[in-house]
């Protein structure tokens, strides 16, 4: 079996072990600073998303296994919605490809299935590169693993994004820098990465992920909203 495939399988198993609720496997520790209280001014159908540090404290030891393209955000919601809708977009030369959109649903349960809830969880994503079996300089696809973790457990899903191009020489994570509010049915970018083969490309920190993606030769973004 190709070494890259073995590494990807091991990564998937580790991700499941880290995020499985109610088991004895080690879990990713939350940042030392907890998310702020849910703002009282937020409407009943608004999702509050805040920056998080997936590898804070002792959890830093898991970083090599999840790869350089991994991160998380806190998600908070008060209302009757039951699912978090997750999608992605590929950006090239400042424009999003509408054909490269895939939707996935993760249940917001907090350990129960009641309709009305005050939900607190963490959305986690890991993206692994899958290279060609005959030419490791060719990037065939991304294997994307997503999970929604809360005090009641976690739900994990994986999917594949076709790429089929040469590997990039540099990359940069696109992360939230401050808390944002996402209206119902409005997918909003919360995490991603930009990549390039030009060493002269610079990225502006402190901007929203989509703003940075619009200035990059290539970007992969994850979007969240309520469902």
How is this structure best summarized?
This protein has 227 residues and is mainly beta. 11% of the residues lie in helices and 46% in strands. The protein is globular and about 50 Å long.
Task: Write structural notes for this entry.
- There is one protein chain.
- By secondary structure, this protein is mainly β.
- The protein contains 3 helices and 12 strands.
- A hairpin with a 6-residue loop joins strand 6 and strand 7.
- The longest helix has 17 residues.
- The radius of gyration is 17 Å and the shape is globular.
- The N terminus is likely disordered.
Task: List its salient traits.
single chain; 227 residues; mainly beta; 6-stranded antiparallel beta sheet; 3 helices; 11% helix; 46% strand; globular; disordered N terminus
Task: Please describe the topology of this protein.
Elements: H1 3-19, E1 46-51, H2 63-66, E2 69-79, E3 83-92, E4 95-97, E5 104-107, E6 117-131, E7 138-150, E8 153-166, E9 170-175, E10 180-183, E11 188-196, H3 209-213, E12 218-226
Antiparallel strand pairs: 1-2, 1-10, 2-6, 3-4, 3-5, 3-12, 6-7, 7-8, 9-11, 11-12
């Amino acid at each position: 079996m190709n070494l890259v495939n073995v590494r990807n399988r091991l990564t998937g198993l580790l991700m499941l072990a880290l995020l499985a609720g109610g088991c004895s496997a080690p879990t990713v520790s939350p940042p030392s600073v907890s998310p702020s209280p849910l703002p009282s001014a937020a409407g009943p159908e608004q999702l509050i998303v805040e920056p998080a540090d997936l590898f804070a404290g002792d959890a830093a030891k898991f970083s090599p296994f999840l790869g350089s393209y991994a991160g998380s955000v806190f998600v908070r919601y008060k209302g009757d919605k039951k699912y978090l809708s997750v999608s992605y977009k590929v950006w090239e030369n400042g424009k999003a490809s509408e054909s490269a959109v895939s939707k996935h649903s993760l249940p917001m349960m907090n350990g129960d299935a009641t309709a009305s809830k005050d939900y607190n969880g963490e959305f986690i994503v890991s993206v692994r590169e899958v290279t060609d079996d005959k030419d490791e300089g060719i990037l065939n696809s991304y294997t994307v693993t997503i999970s929604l973790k809360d005090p009641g457990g976690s739900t994990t899903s994986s999917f594949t994004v076709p790429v089929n191009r040469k590997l990039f020489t540099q990359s940069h994570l696109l992360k939230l820098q401050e808390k944002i509010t996402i209206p119902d049915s409005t997918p909003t970018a919360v995490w991603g990465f930009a990549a390039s083969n030009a060493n002269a490309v610079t990225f502006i920190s402190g901007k929203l992920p989509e703003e940075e993606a619009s200035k990059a030769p290539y970007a992969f973004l994850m979007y969240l909203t309520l469902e």
